[in-house]
Amino acid sequence: MRRRAPRPIATALETFTASIAPATVLAQVQGIWGAAVGDTIAAHATVVAEHDGVLEIVCDESVWAAELELLGPDLVARLTASLGRRRSSPCAVERALDNAPI
To answer: How far is the C-alpha of 73 from the C-alpha of 75, rounded, in Å?
Structure first.
């Protein structure tokens, strides 16, 4: 019996990673959030829910909630591109919540 040649670890990891990929849109968005929106936004805003393609985002300060409202269309485009979805059915940012203590 012949011994098979070793496989590159990258091939094995790609296969493994694909088999455990998140099944929900929320998990997919949370997985790419930092890369898609940048470290600065990701440090102040977190995706907490998704309903019918609409993301709910919690911000640590109200100024970041306002910033996300302004950046909404650009963030939607970045997330859509990162997820590899068609432009006709993007995720949308419905609201940004201020999670700061009262």
So the answer is: 6
* Residue-level length of the chain: 102
Alpha-carbon span 54 to 76, nearest angstrom = 10
CA atoms of 57 and 51, how far apart (whole Å): 12
Helices (H), the chain: 9-19, 25-37, 39-44, 62-83
**pTM score, whole prediction:** 0.67
Tens digit of each residue's pLDDT (9 = 90 or more) over 55-85:
889 898 888 988 998 998 899 889 888 888 6
The answer to whether 59 touches 47, Cβ cutoff 8 Å, is no
From residue 61, how far is each of 5, 44, 95, 102 by CA, in Å? 55, 7, 14, 11
